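note to self: the first set is below, dont mix up w the second
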Amino acid sequence: MDQINTQTSVPKNIAIYVKLLAIEHYGSLNVMYTDILIKFLSISPWKANPPLPWRMAKVHSPAFNKGKLVSDASWVPMNMMLPAKLVNDIKAELILINATSEKNVSLRTFLYTAIFWWCTYVMPSKKSGL
């Protein structure tokens, strides 16, 4: 099965929580990512009343501290190896979303919103601070 590497950014605490969920429930991050995105597409929470708002993923812009290159420690990249068909289904949905929305929802935003939705509404942490 063809896989496509996709990327978004998430807050560091969500990245840690996602890894814990994958270990406990799926055995693999990419298996969990695929499940999350299939369910996110199927349920379409952005169409709910009220709709789930789109979450903008921060871009990793490099920062300099005393002349040295440093990265934003509060957000980390999240690389997802996803089935090509799923990525194509997401891109097709993005065309529909962007045709009816004032916002231009990117693939990065779609992926981050799906992860946020999963961690907040589907499998929320029992600990505060997520």
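second set (the one i keep forgetting abt)
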Amino acid sequence: MNQITLQKLTKNQKEQIRWLYLGEYEVVDICTKLNLEAETVRFFIFGPDGSGSEKSCLYNIKKGMSSTAISSFIADKANVLERTGGVALNILNRALLKLDADITSGEVVLNIDDMKKLAGIVLDFDKMVRLETGRATETIEHMGLSIAEAREVLINDPFALAIEAEFSETTKLPWLED
């Protein structure tokens, strides 16, 4: 009989496996998504004998649930996450408003590290908004701009220097010519 070694799962990992499995993810997909070994995930889902017959294994639990109950479980989890995120945003908003008031009154002066942290918050929020709206969260390829597009970007950029620039179209790059 082969011996298998199982990873120790945290409570959070077990909950994620449960949520994904009930959400119709396959074992392979769960392993990939959570970066876990397949034997560990299979053991958690199908039990020690691998058949799913043990009462406490996820396979048996899911088998006994209706699709409506599973949908309700997933919807409840999503609602809890949404409420938790809302509470965190409210707390962060109040803290940032207080910080803004303290900076305006001169009580607080931010150092470079503080400003980096605030910039990180802005970037994280931008990524969340992009994710929610279906836009890319990271730039994955560089694209050229036409002259009109470049001018438009510079006109709308509040940090752009007010200088005149000459633009020219480049069809061939000199270092790539034969």
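remember for set 2: The first helix runs from residue 11 to 22.
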